Amino acid sequence: MSLNNERLQKVIAQSGVTSRRKAEQLIVDGRVRVNGEIVKKLGTKVNKNDLIEVDHVPIVKEDLVYYLVYKPRRFISSVKDDRGRKIVTELVPDVDERVFPVGRLDYDTSGLILLTNDGELAQLLMHPSHQIDKVYVAKIKGIPPKSAFTLFKKGILSKGELLKAKQVRLLSANKQKNNSVIEITLHEGKNRQVRRMFEEIDFPVLKLKRERYSFLDLTGLQPGDYRELTKQEVQRLKDDALEDN
Ligand code: URA
After folding, report:
1. Which residues are catalytic?
2. Closest residue CA from atom 4 of ligand 1
3. CATH class of the domain at 6-58
């Protein structure tokens, strides 16, 4: 879509999100943001470089692109940061499209994160009803008892929120250093979920890495590397996301 000095409602409608009339309603209802700010004025002019979001999901004005990124620690999973920290989109400098991360990894968590400009797929993948495996490896201070793993699978309360793991297993334990390495698989993606689960049992997470997202892993990549997903991988992700709907 060529986009220069166009009316906001037209751009939203052309992106396929909805009709022009409904786009106007979205704007009036305060559900549309331009560059992070809510815009309620119909007819506001936008152009190519503006980030337009409906209900926090960027609309797509470009070819759809999909990247798998190995996020190092100390990067923010966001498209901007008010505190001047490095952001994940800086890891794909050669990508012209306005990509954004699918979900979040904490600033201090490393590992696999997807970047795309496909708002629809991102929303599907992030929706709690879709059972996408997210596999983390956590280095833990101390060696939690097996009973903690059973508890995690049943669900553990943290600040009034029930946090559940799909699978938990001990990969190694070092009695001398008093630490352990645990693999934990989540379907949910609640804020700081792995760290909070271990905080609840008083075994703090020292290091956290996401090793797998659905069928995708970090094979062949170093921290800071990225690669484009193949067409087949994108299709399989879509199929996986829709499967449990
Ligand atoms: N759980 C966390 O605690 N942090 C992450 O970044 C991801 C899952």
Report:
1. 106
2. 192
3. alpha beta
